[in-house]
Amino acid sequence: MDDTTQSMAQPLLAIPDTDLARRTVDLVTLAENPAIANHSIRSFLFARMFAGHEGAEAGRDYDADLLFLSCTLHDIGLSEAGNRRQRFEVDGADTAAEFLTARGLPAAEVDAVWEAIALHTSAHLAERRSTLCRLTSAGISIDFGHDSEFISDADGAAVHRAYPRYATATSLVDAVVEQARSRPEKAPAYSFTAELVRQRGLPDPVTTLERRSSAGRWGN
């Protein structure tokens, strides 16, 4: 079986079989709550499906290992280990970079993952930076039900059986807002975090992210 056939036959739920990938899964499952950890891994699975849908081939058009790292670590800033004094996206990118550097990932690859994580909430920016940024952003967006029409119901169900949602959107908003209320500098004006904090302070505290997720294909 040649490399192309192996890529096409790759199991739906497969993740990279490397020591670094296993350590990354261990980190997010220990440091993050189950809803956020599962969201992070699902984002990779959906990003890989999106890449295939676009005709992008791992090893030729993108690095599957780096895509796994950027997706799986994209919300590490919402863990206690990643809760510092910057926007959670930047704190997460810094935390991921330190983790990956300590485990020997080359600096250029660390920087690529840093950028994908730091920009993952920045619509219209991530898509313009690199294939890794664009695929990471797409996988995260698809996990909220956006632009998921190309995914079969059976494949979507299999991903969610393996990694249940546990009210993903609400868990994410809770974590972002809790951090920002404790450290207001994490919610600079007009940022994604500042908008979530504003919406949670309204008489009806259910955010747009939660409403859209609940009404979307996968639910909250």
Can you walk through the features of this model?
By secondary structure, this protein is an all-alpha fold. The protein has a domain at 17-164: Hypothetical protein af1432. 60% of the residues lie in helices and 0% in strands. The protein contains twelve helices and no strands. Helix 2 (19-31) packs parallel to helix 4 (64-72), helix 3 (34-53) crosses helix 8 (131-142) and helix 5 (88-102) runs antiparallel to helix 6. The model is unreliable at 1-9 (pLDDT under 50).
CATH-defined topology of the domain at 17-164:
Hypothetical protein af1432
Q: Give the percentage of residues in beta strands.
A: under 5%
User: How much helix, percentage-wise, in residues?
Assistant: 55-70%
Distance between the termini: 40 Å
Q: Please, how many helices?
A: 12
Shape: globular
Task: Write down the overall mean pLDDT.
Answer: 93
Derived structural class: mainly alpha
The SSE order reads HHHHHHHHHHHH
Based on the structure given, which CATH architecture of the domain at 17-164 is correct?
Answer: Orthogonal Bundle
